[in-house]
Amino acid sequence: MIQNAEHLASHGTLLPDDASAADVMVWVARARECAVQRCELLRSECEAVDDNHRSELFKAFALPAQDLSEPGQLATLVGGAMRLLKPTITPRPEIWWWRNINAAIRSAPRCRKGAACPDCEERRPCPLDVAHEYVALSLLSDNAGHQTDKRINGLIMKTSSTDSYLGKWSENYPVVAGHVAYLCIKRSELAGEHGRAETYSGNARRLDLHLVEPHLTIRHAQTLLGQQHVNEAEAMIKGALIPGSTNPSQEMLRAALIRIASFRAQDEHRKRGEPDPQYVLLRRPADRVRTRRFS
Ligand SMILES: [Zn+2]
Ligand SMILES: [Zn+2]
Question: Distance from first CA to last CA of the chain, Å, rounded?
Answer without folding.
Answer: 72
